[in-house]
Request: fold
Amino acid sequence: MAFPLDHGGWCRNLPAALKHGTIPLLLITCSNAVQACPVANKTIQLTGNGHTLTTEVATTRDSHMCGLAFRHELPADHGMLFAYAQDRIIGFWMKNTYIPLSIAFLDADGRILETHDMDPRFPAGRYISRVPARYALEVNQGWFSENDIEVGDSLEIDLQAVQEIYRFDNR
Reply:
């Protein structure tokens, strides 16, 4: 039995698939229909050690939950900055994330508190800040070391722009 590929409508044919024994193909096809998260984040530029990074800014619960999930690439010198209203212990994992990433936890002034490499082959692995942080920055794996950026360095972040985005997104 063939199922039309019309962006999801064919997934509703589950009873027919069960009846005709085509469920394995149906599940593979349905699971491949997932695209990048439908969250549109604003972007800002930040600088570290003279290197500019274009970052999406995630300020809402939905954008925090979605992050870089379901993406298969991240352009060079791009990342995602997760902003929080106050300092807190922040945790991340790689569920549905296919890109090897590095993450930095930052204080309210943009100083790097710690970094970790994140491996998409271990989606249940947890990457948790050891101390309260205000921001988390995900970039392509190796970006910090390639740009000689390390723990204790500060990133130049337009904190006013982040605060305005945060205030706008969380009304």
